[in-house]
């Protein structure tokens, strides 16, 4: 157990710290403002520089040679430093903004394809909306973003038909949730008597800064909701903990996988009826709009398309696909994708009912392992997908996601050129290291006791 205590900190801000922090900002700035996604090797050098500076600052903080307050300020300033950047590593934001503007016009983004909407609503279409559709990567399928996601899109669209201001407002919202992540992490670190430097592991992580603030992904909001769930659980406010868990589901469906695990915790506290009633009601509130007309059918169609057609930066799936190539002459994703999801469901349910669950720390540790199972069995693993799991892992001794956050950036090597083509050597490098750390951690930590799986938190 690591104890929360004030570290002896040098009062003087020395030149070496200034140089490292300057290098950190330079690298982040180059990725956000200068290098396009196609310049992968320039981005990679900048990312390595930023990650090296990050590790050095965290190491110094752990030794007591770098102020926690200065580290937090650096992390916050780094986010506001990116306030005016147009996302370069991802183009998902075009769909975010288009859906938001449809909401403001009174249309349901689940009922019509973007290109079809432009065709059938010529009088309401304009150059701004046409540019959003032309630049998005999902104009041929229905929106796959859950209702609370859509609500935030609509808030950003209130700033008018301006790409800059829409991005600006969306980024301010995301930074606000990052501040909540900082708050909840700090509170949980104190509650569980953990070393205070752990907060810097999240707030200074370059992947977190780039994918959430620069590239406008919503995994930071999911993390804020899950951290709030843990915090409220520790405060004894179980009903409110269910509210924040349901909110996480309303942003991304993936937190549904924690349902059985959280239900078990409520069963231990003899509050199973409360869980079932509240969970059903809250999930209806957050997802109920999908029941309107054909919304749920179109949403499900896009979800199934995503699960059975798309592939990127996968691990177990790519291994199966490679092996199957010796026996069949077609891509087996339509069968393997759903099978892996069912297998993941089985493993998650097994872990949910047999994993150690005595307190809030066990709850956090179990959620990290559930995320790990889920991500390793997916056909698509974009870099930002691992961020909620990484944020939760800060509260444990599991450093698999910290390591993964260093190497997942290699997946952007697929964009090095005109055509998107994944590089096998980057995939192998990334997952050999990740699986190596998983095996090493399991060897050190896994043991069985009284029929339950115990992993030291």
Description of the structure:
- This protein has 457 residues and is an all-alpha fold.
- Among the domains are: 15-89 and 187-226, no CATH class; 290-455, no CATH class.
- Helix content is 65%, strand content 2%.
- The chain is built from 21 helices and two strands.
- It has helices at residues 15-34, 40-63, 68-81, 93-104, 114-120, 127-135, 147-157, 163-191, 198-203, 206-214, 219-234, 238-251, 259-268, 272-287, 295-309, 316-324, 333-354, 360-376, 387-393, 400-407, 424-445; strands spanning 446-449, 452-455.
- A two-stranded antiparallel sheet has the order 1-2.
- β1 and β2 form a beta hairpin.
- α11 (219-234) runs parallel beside α19 (387-393), α17 (333-354) packs antiparallel against α18 and α20 (400-407) runs antiparallel to α21.
- The radius of gyration is 22 Å and the shape is globular.
- The protein starts with 14 loop residues before the first helix and ends with a strand.
- Residues 1-11 have low confidence and may be disordered.
- Pfam families: MptA_B_family.
- Keywords: Membrane, Transmembrane, Transmembrane helix.
What are the key terms here?
single chain; 457 residues; mainly alpha; globular
Write the layout of secondary structure elements.
Elements: H1 15-34, H2 40-63, H3 68-81, H4 93-104, H5 114-120, H6 127-135, H7 147-157, H8 163-191, H9 198-203, H10 206-214, H11 219-234, H12 238-251, H13 259-268, H14 272-287, H15 295-309, H16 316-324, H17 333-354, H18 360-376, H19 387-393, H20 400-407, H21 424-445, E1 446-449, E2 452-455
Antiparallel strand pairs: 1-2
